[in-house]
Amino acid sequence: MSHAAPNKNTPFFKEEDFLPFTIPCVDEDVINSAIDCLKSGWIATGPRVQKFETDLCEYLACPHAIAVNSATSGLHLALLACGIGANGDGKKTDEVITTPMTFVSTVNSIIHAGATPVFVDVEPNTYNMDISKIEAAITPHTKAIMPVHFTGMSVDLDLLYEIARKHNLRVIEDAAHAIGSSYKGRKIGSFGDIQVYSFHPCKNMTTAEGGALSVHDAETAKKMRIQRFHGIAKDAWDRYSKDGNQQIDVITPGHKYNMSDLQAAIGIPQLQKLDAMNVQRQKHVARYKKAFESWDEITLPQDATYENFNAFHIYAILINPEKADGMTRDTLMAELKNYNIGTGLHYPAVHLFDYYKKTYGFKRGDFPRAETISDRILSLPLFPQMTEEQQDRVISALSRIFNKPQPSCTSSESR
Q1: d(C-alpha 313, C-alpha 327), whole Å
Q2: Which of 220, 294, 333, 398 is the most exposed place for a label (fewest CB within 10 A)?
Q3: Active-site residue flag, 357
Q4: Contacts of 149 (CB under 8 A, 6+ apart)
């Protein structure tokens, strides 16, 4: 699909004093698509969801795409479809290996499925789970690996799937950051086992709230579709259309994870422009890199050693307190807020939250790389329609905070 990037001159794009770390890219095409859906009389799951799923299959080059109301739902759905959860012996649950460097939904989905999360530490450069540590974490109870493509940077999938095949494990890729990313020339979602995407407003494309799965096994996809809507073996659209039959059967006590047509109406034009929006993200990332690459006070996102395309859901830097006169991440975020610039905190290491410490006995020191990153990480403003002037505000503010010369890439108006 080749389309022009969305126009920033929309009714919802305004130059405000405060610059948030992200703004959803909503243009007239998206607005009109949503209005058409509202006028159609059908806003629940229906023909637009079907079209959105078809479009996702085409974009991702996958055989099955399943739209859901959130990526969190998608992760839970994937675990259930793989038969992962309490194993029934009353002693030990199934285990899923994942990363502590993620949003809590990744880990919560494992717990909600009745399984136990098992963490491995991350790589210091990509912040992705360290594949070399996975085999040491595998036990007889391990049933799946759930990697996270952090910021859109793919994990080393060849090595990951080699381990999964060797130990007969399912792979559920948390690709919430990675719609449009690729690994060794292959789009995330075009191969493998299961991938789960997020369409939250802060992501590379949005359906307001929502998500989707790409699935490569027909039987697994069938289980997901049944679990997605109360365990009913028939979609609502099939029941309530003119030729539909309202007789149903419930195969399993399922969940309410379906996407609405109104969400899909937002997503259809978003998907059409996703590649163009990701190109804009790449341009902004290149300007940040040019401005900051010689600074010791911060560490910039690093590339992997293998070929990949990072869609850059976020631009996450690390502050180096030892080079920044002791300045902490929290202090830097507060300083930027004084310049009316917002930032994101992606993410505090999951194992250090109270629930996980109390429930599983995790403590500081268990995963030192993730903890170091967690203590230092923050996300700078990044969104497709961000102007150079807006980005220059960020660069100029950091120049002043760290007492650096104004980078040559910024415009004179922001000096």
Answers
A1: 26
A2: 294
A3: no
A4: 128, 155, 173, 174, 175, 177, 178, 181, 188
What is the rounded CA–CA span in Å between residue 300 and residue 58?
A: 34
Catalytic residue (one of 187, 203, 223, 273): 203
Residue 211 near residue 70 (C-beta atoms within 8 A): yes
CB 341 within 8 A of CB 353: no
User: What confidence category does residue 339 fall into, taking pLDDT thresholds of 50, 70 and 90?
Assistant: very high
Q: What are phi and psi of 172, to 5 degrees?
A: -115, 105
Q: What is the pLDDT of residues 198-242, one digit of tens each?
A: 999 999 999 999 999 999 999 999 999 999 999 987 665 555 555
Q: Is the pLDDT confidence value at 12 over 90?
A: no
Query: What pLDDT is stored for residue 234 in this prediction?
Result: 64
CB within 8 Å of 396: residues ≥ 6 apart = 406, 410, 414, 415
How high is the mean pLDDT of the chain?
92
H/E run at residue 235? none
Cα dihedral 58→60→62→65 (10° resolution)? -80
Q: Which two tokens stand for residue 160?
A: 């990951």
- From 287, 234, 271, 223, select the one nearest 80 (Cα to Cα): 223
Instruction: Name the DSSP class of 296.
Output: S
Distance in angstroms (rounded) separating the CA atoms of residues 33 and 273 = 14
Length of the chain measured in residues: 415
Dig out the tokens for 175 from the structure.
Answer: 């690709």
